[in-house]
Write a structure and sequence with these properties.
Distance between the termini of chain A: 8 Å
Shape of chain B: globular
Oligomer: heterodimer
Strand content of chain A: under 5%
CATH architecture of the largest domain in chain B: 3-Layer(aba) Sandwich
Shape of chain A: flat
Order of helices and strands of chain B: HHHHHEHEHEHEEHEEHEEEH
Strand order of the largest sheet of chain B: 6-2-1-7-8-10-9
CATH class of one domain in chain A: Mainly Alpha
Structural class of chain B: alpha/beta
Number of domains of chain B: 2
Number of helices of chain B: 11
Number of helices of chain A: 42
Structural class of chain A: mainly alpha
Largest sheet of chain A: none
């Protein structure tokens, strides 16, 4: 496709590119398609040095989307030599990286530039692209006359991650005459190429204080005696970074050996830790203030040592969500020892640590943990009680079932969020216990039926939810009984359960539930009726399509769309119902659009006109999505929406027209760029133009 | 989604996230950046399930069209806002209020009580703390001072009026104070009527200025750790509301991590013995603090850098 521009457009773009207003320059960059390609590229490269990062970013994006990669590569590489404007140079590297493998030949050629700065930036671009075709050249550049180029080449080989680079990188890393910067880059690159390296391979770097940590960090990929000796010594090193590298290497080593060897290594590492007590102390001290990767290493390493003084600090550091699961899994390996330590420290733990302890006791299975969980179930703090319930369930502690049910009965009988959350958590915990095998289901079933009658409304709903989960599906008398409950919540649960029963006994109660006074029960009944039913359910669903509550009408419309394929007369009736629903309240019309899309019914021109004339943006957006999957002839109707007053409708329409490659929309969309002020829509426009131009 | 609710999680689209966050910002100033997207998605999805709706668009429509009496906005705000607080939080500031500001204002206007507004009072710990500390310092509630408290959350106001607290509310409360003003009741602590009756609660959305007029002129506004949830525009609007409500010479107490830099130049910064507070200048006093505008410019520069990275 070619977009047509006149001379006035071109002059306006060129003028705007040097405007003092950042937004005007950015818009001009985005309209650079108006210029002849060879002029556009040169002007865009100039903008890479713009004082505004937004303009630079837009220029990079436009350059990358240019089809003439040879010219783009040539001007970008030329820009790398601009020592006066680092912003422009960085922008050029960014654009080259984004341009990808198509600029590779030009970059390889430029890697022989006489200017070492250019060579270094070319290597950075090659590394950013990450194409293995650059591998051999990068190996050659490990011997470049300039140390910055050699270091960049090592980094680049690390980015490529090819094991065949290992020998060359190791040679650079071991070379005593090489600059430390280059050796360090080579060691780091070796970390990403995943080649097993022995302690003797790396021996020359272990004595160098700058390189030692990076060298230690490469051990542990294979189990060899020299390496374990080096790693034991490194645990006692005075440098924290060396110790951290050694811990990482130990963890790597444990992941690579079988169970018997792992046991033997554990003895070694624990002996090393005993010999240096400050190792544990220091690791514990820095559990909170280290960076995340180091913290994760410290947590797991302390787990290897089973260091009891670390139990409480490990639990405290679980407060950070990024560490929680690793810390708790690690503490889980301490077993009952962790329970002992936490029992002793319980009074000093804050609420968050206690919640995590309850999670832990779900994994440790000791008696102390059980007692602490039982006590936490009675705590005044609702969040702790919920954590305790989850811990009990995770343990599969069926003996705690009466405690959980009693707790459920004690939750405040109101609809406060906290009370609802606690009831849900307790019901989930009871259901999980019921799933733990043996006679668990029947025990839960029996106890819950016993408690049902005397329970308050909100508790009955929770008990009914669990019963619907544990009771046999064919136990229709139970569900029919629940269907007569005074609480709408319980009746709703019963309807959902009956919906899963494949028996004629369920059909009449379900039909009667369609006339329940509570909308939620009618909604559940509509859903139950529609799922798995045949066309015989249609009359009932059509009745519900006239329900006074729009949510029920919406559900019936969705239900109609779930019915299996049927004869032409019924299909016509379905179509007519759905089209009528498009004129209903928004909730119903939205459901009708979803249904039409699901069934794949094409909308008639007349219906499209009616829907697109509605004022509600939510509905228009859904209509646009529906038309996106339909006949291409209807896309024309979306054109006026690209300038709709609501941003979300504009963005949706533009996105769909581009997705369907409706090229006639391109001039209208391009024209919007000048006036569109909404960044979200601008993003949609630029993406659309890229698609339409491509 | 729990074991007993196997319905699949709904995913919010970019456009839906923006629509809902803009609606919330307009309604009550709450700001949801990209980092809060998951939280918004999860909490709104819960409301969708409870209302039997199948899309975020349908929920957006429901909110957009609802009348205030429908209460869905209030319910959603309850779901979204963190209300954790405790008695005597940022004690140094409360000490400055009772030990310096209150005596000074009493001297300046001895005939009528000092009016104090706890804006965004959550479950009531802050306004009740003020009453307790002022009483302890010898001031008589109703005579020397009056405390008003507002919050946007119906749920929090119910809790505040109930005045029943759990252990977590007392993490910085001295034992004698707790013994004097609270009694234990089924594992919770009930506040004495002698404190409760001296706080008047009202429901107020700080971004909606119409109901703010129901409050009279104030001598002190406490709005601590509330505006951190607002976008810049709403912060400015709320600070302007406080300025308008405060009598000249009245004080604004923000949370320790909050300041007026880049929000308002209308207040002066006042150094008290135990804290820094803002004050609406008396007539004729000029607010001309070069550090204030320099700091504002620096912050703007930092913001620009942030948006680049």
């Amino acid at each position: 496709m070619t977009l047509h521009f006149d001379e006035r457009d071109r002059a306006s773009v060129i003028g705007d590119l040097s405007s003092s207003d950042e937004d005007v320059r950015r818009l001009a960059v985005e309209r650079a398609a108006a210029l002849p390609p060879e002029d556009a590229v040169v002007l865009l490269v100039e903008r890479l040095g713009d004082s505004s990062w937004r303009v630079r970013k837009a220029a990079v994006e436009r350059l990358v989307s240019s089809p003439d990669s040879r010219q783009v590569a040539a001007v970008l590489i030329e820009a790398l030599a601009d020592g006066e404007n680092p912003g422009r140079r960085n922008g050029a590297v960014e654009a080259l990286v984004l341009a990808g493998p198509r600029v590779l030949p030009a970059l390889l050629e430029a890697s022989g530039s006489e200017d070492p700065d250019v060579r270094k930036l070319v290597v950075d671009a090659l590394a950013g692209i990450g194409d293995v075709a650059a591998h051999d050249r990068l190996v050659e550049l490990l011997h470049d006359g300039d140390p910055n180029v050699r270091a960049a080449a090592a980094d680049g080989l690390g980015a490529l991650g090819q094991t065949r680079a290992a020998a060359a990188l190791l040679q650079r890393a071991r070379c005593d005459d090489e600059e430390p910067l280059v050796r360090l880059s080579a060691l780091r690159a070796l970390g990403t190429v995943e080649t097993p390296l022995s302690a003797s391979d790396l021996a020359p770097v272990f004595d160098d204080p700058i390189l030692r940590a990076a060298g230690i960090d490469l051990l542990g990929r294979e189990d060899e005696p020299d390496a374990t000796t080096v790693l034991q010594k490194a645990l006692a090193a005075s440098s924290r970074s060396v110790r951290a590298a050694a811990m990482r290497a130990w963890l790597r080593l444990f992941a690579n050996v079988d169970a018997p060897r792992s046991e033997a290594l554990l003895q070694e590492v624990r002996a090393a830790a005993l010999a240096s007590p400050e190792l544990v102390e220091d690791a514990v001290e820095h559990l909170e203030d280290s960076d995340l990767p180091t913290r994760l290493v410290l947590v797991q390493f302390l787990g290897l040592l089973r260091a009891e003084p670390a139990v409480v600090p490990l639990l405290r550091c679980a407060r950070d969500e990024a560490v929680t699961e690793v810390a708790l899994a690690t503490l889980g390996t301490f077993g009952v020892n962790a329970e002992e330590q936490l029992e002793a420290a319980w009074g000093e733990l804050d609420a968050c640590a206690r919640r995590h302890a309850c999670d832990l006791f779900g994994r440790t299975h000791g008696e102390r943990g059980a007692l602490l969980l039982a006590s936490a179930l009675e705590d005044p703090d609702a969040e702790l009680r919920m954590a305790a319930a989850r811990g009990v369930a995770r343990r599969g502690a069926l003996g705690a079932l009466p405690l959980l049910v009693r707790r459920l009965e004690l939750v405040a009988p109101d609809d406060e969020i906290e009370a609802e959350e606690e009831r849900a958590a307790l019901a989930d915990a009871i259901a999980e216990l019921a799933d733990c095998g043996g006679d668990a289901r029947s025990r839960v079933d029996a106890l819950l039926r016993e408690r049902l009658e005397a329970a308050t409304d909100s508790v009955r709903v929770a008990l009914a939810r669990v019963l619907a989960h544990v009771a046999p599906a064919e136990d229709t008398p139970l569900f029919l009984g629940l269907l007569k409950d005074p609480s709408a919540g319980v009746r709703r649960v019963a309807v959902e359960a009956l919906g899963r029963v494949e028996s004629a006994v369920a059909s009449e109660p379900l039909r009667l539930a369609l006339a329940d006074e509570a909308a939620n029960v009618r909604i559940a009944a509509t859903a139950a009726l529609a799922s798995g039913a045949g066309e015989e359910a249609l009359p009932d669903l059509l009745t519900l399509a006239g329900d006074p509550d729009p949510r029920v009408r919406a559900r019936s419309v969705r239900g109609i769309s779930q019915l299996p394929a049927c004869d032409a007369a019924v299909e016509a009736e379905i179509r007519a119902t759905l089209e009528r629903a498009l004129g209903d309240e928004v909730l119903v019309a939205l459901a009708a659009l979803e249904a039409l899309r699901e069934i794949g019914i094409e909308l008639s021109d007349a219906v499209i006109e009616v829907v697109l004339a509605r004022p509600e943006p939510e509905l228009l957006r859904e209509a646009v999505r529906t038309l996106a999957g339909g006949d291409a002839a209807h896309l024309e109707a979306l054109l006026p929406l690209v300038s709709h007053p609501d941003w979300s409708v504009r963005a949706e329409a533009i996105g769909v027209l581009a997705e369907r490659r409706f090229v006639r929309a391109a001039p209208a969309i391009l024209g919007l760029l000048e006036s569109e002020r909404d960044d979200f829509v601008r993003g949609a426009i630029l993406q659309a133009l890229e698609r339409l131009e491509g | 989604m729990g074991l007993l609710d196997p319905r699949p999680e709904l995913r919010i689209t970019d456009a839906e996230f923006r629509m809902l966050s803009e609606l919330l910002r307009r309604h009550c100033g709450l700001h949801f950046g990209a980092e809060s997207r998951f939280l918004l998605e999860r909490r709104v999805a819960r409301r969708l399930r409870e209302l039997e709706l199948t899309s975020f668009s349908a929920y957006h429509y429901l909110l957009r069209k609802e009348s205030p009496a429908d209460g869905e906005f209030a319910r959603l705000v309850d779901e979204l806002v963190t209300n954790e607080t405790y008695f005597f939080r940022e004690r140094g500031q409360l000490r400055a209020l009772v030990g310096e500001i209150l005596p000074e204002l009493r001297v300046r206007r001895p005939t009528s009580p000092v009016t104090i507004w706890s804006a965004g009072c959550s479950s009531g710990e802050e306004p009740y703390s003020v009453v307790m500390l002022a009483r302890e310092a010898g001031f008589v509630p109703g005579v020397d001072f009056r405390v008003y408290a507002s919050d946007i959350s119906h749920r929090m106001l119910r809790k505040a009026r109930q005045a029943l607290y759990r252990e977590t509310s007392f993490r910085d409360t001295e034992a004698p104070l707790r013994e004097r003003y609270f009694s234990e009741k089924e594992g919770q602590w009930s506040l004495s009527d002698s404190v409760k009756k001296h706080v008047d609660f009202i429901h107020l959305n700080l971004v909606n200025r119409s109901k703010v007029s129901l409050l009279g002129a104030m001598d002190v506004v406490l709005c601590r750790n509330v505006i951190i949830y607002f976008d810049v525009e709403s912060k400015r609007q709320v600070i302007q509301t406080f300025f308008d409500k405060l009598r000249p010479g009245g004080h604004l107490l923000l949370g320790h991590s909050e300041s007026l830099i880049n929000l308002s130049n209308a207040f002066e910064l006042r150094h008290l013995k135990t804290d820094l507070v803002y004050r609406r200048p008396l007539p004729g006093e000029l607010v001309d603090d070069p550090w204030h505008s320099a700091a504002a410019a620096a912050i703007r520069g930092l913001d620009d850098e942030d948006s680049k990275s």
